[in-house]
Design a protein that fits this description.
globular, Inosine-uridine Nucleoside N-ribohydrolase, Chain A, eight-stranded mixed sheet, alpha/beta
Length: 351
Amino acid sequence: MKNIFPPLLGALLCLALPVPAELPSEPREPLRVILDTDIGNDVDDALALAMLHAFQSRRECRLLAVTLSKDSVYAVAFVDLVNTFYGRGDIPIGRVRQGKTPEPGKFLEVVAESQGTDGRPLYARQREIGAQVPEAVALLRNTLAAQPDASVVIIQIGFFTNLARLLDSPPDEVSPLAGRELVARKVKLVSMMAGHFQGDGPGGGKEFNVVMDIPAARKVFNEWPTPLYVSPWELGRSIKYPAVSIERDYAYVLHHPIPDAYRLYMNFPYDRPTYDLTSALFAVRPDRGYFTVSAAGRVQVTDEGKTQFIPAGQGRHYVISATDEQKTRTLEAMIELSSQPPDGLHKGATQ
């Protein structure tokens, strides 16, 4: 009997267990992402860019291009050296022309011009400072035209200038489609940091990304043909990136551009709101329960730049928020991702 029951029991268990209908599918293709940023006006853009490199290392996304709504050669240089630091200096960079804020910001120039003790640049770059890069809308059109339909997620964490100009762009040698049609064909959704819906008084509050180019913001909210997921000022404000992470989590290399930028932005130590990080996290991981998504609606922008969200069943706009429990999980994820070491650790660092 001792020799009979174990095989019999095993056979019965096999019959009781469900049998998969098919073998596991291939791993999901990395999400195709374009980052549109005003990097330099705040340090959260730099942390968001670092997060996207971590996502790419994890094969969760592929950063197709970075376009700048800040008209500064040092914005180009900083993005270039960060991409190079993470081993991806070949990512195309586009820059707005005649944008809203040409000044370099509080850390871009210092980090880009930093030198080691031997007089060499502290961080390697693929381009000389001031080198010509494509105009932002031209790069957006080139990048979108080369992608499969409904495959691209745009993360907008700056002014609306580039996306508004993209909507107005005419057909060209890259695509026979005008801007709005090209967007409708190629873009899956936009995840953006914008708006202040809990401001004092009617019509919401004023938020920097909207106020800096109000006509462009109104155009995008009124005419953009795909879903827009909006991470508002009040969400990022309620989740602060801790200075202790800057002090401890990036020490795997002697020189790192992200904590360098963070220390230069304000009197260190300080905890900075995660305005732009929330948009990057939602874009790549919308289904992980980090955020709560509103019902569909429409975002309206007043003449003075205030924003208001109006629920509407046929609307394509959604506002994300987070409970206290979600905020704890979200912050943990953002710290882990933004401080993740590059592939090969020191790749791109010259000192």
